[in-house]
Amino acid sequence: MDHLTPQQAFDELQKSPNALMIDCRTEFEYYYIGHPTEAVNIEWNRGIEFEVNSHFCDQVLRMAGRKDRQIILICRSGKRSVDAGLELEKNGFTNVSNVLEGFEGELDKEHHRGTLGGWRLRGLPWRQI
């Protein structure tokens, strides 16, 4: 799995229109915290128990159409997307990348996100519903 900075991921999406960005956070995070404008949401974890979505790989394949399509994964801080990417690779996906820092970045000393890194802090296109 490749690891891309937020800017590298954005640049890759601009030069490779067939690349698919998947935001693997929960639906709640995707809609209410915000998401990259080009991302589609497929949850890696679900529900209150934060259970792994046992249909994740099938859902990604349905969206991607084939296992060799370029997939760029993003989550909150770049950790869940690594787990999701490893599972995709285990299931035969061959072109998977993870966005370092994720959408919101790591916690700062005040336990806030969005101040140390992430897609949003880097000023890349995003929306919130």
Report on this model:
With 129 residues, this protein is α/β, with parallel strands linked by helices. It has a single domain, classed as Rhodanese-like domain (Oxidized Rhodanese, domain 1, 3-Layer(aba) Sandwich), CATH 3.40.250. It is 29% helix and 20% strand. The protein has 4 helices and 9 strands. A 5-stranded parallel β-sheet has the order 1-8-7-2-4. A hairpin with a 4-residue loop joins strand 5 (45-46) and strand 6 (51-52). The protein is globular and about 40 Å long. The chain starts with a strand and ends with a strand. The model has no long low-confidence stretch (mean pLDDT 96).
Describe the protein's topology.
Layout: E1 2-4, H1 6-15, E2 20-23, H2 27-33, E3 35-36, E4 39-41, E5 45-46, E6 51-52, H3 56-64, E7 71-74, H4 80-90, E8 96-99, E9 126-127
Parallel strand pairs: 1-8, 2-4, 2-7, 7-8
Antiparallel strand pairs: 3-9, 5-6
Mean pLDDT: 96
CATH architecture: 3-Layer(aba) Sandwich
Count of discrete domains: 1
Instruction: Let me know the CATH homologous superfamily.
Output: Rhodanese-like domain
Helical percentage = 25-40%
Beta-strand content bin: 15-25%
The total strand number stands at: 9
Per CATH, the class reads: Alpha Beta
First-to-last CA distance: 31 Å
Profile the largest sheet.
Answer: 5 strands, parallel
**How many distinct helices?**
4
Task: Assign the structural class, choosing from mainly alpha, mainly beta, alpha/beta, alpha+beta, or little secondary structure.
Answer: alpha/beta
Strand order of the largest sheet: 1-8-7-2-4
Overall, the morphology is globular
How large, in whole angstroms, is the Cα Rg? 14 Å
Q: How would you spell out the order of helices and strands?
A: EHEHEEEEHEHEE
Unreliable stretches (pLDDT < 50, length at least 5) are none
> What would the CATH topology be?
Oxidized Rhodanese, domain 1
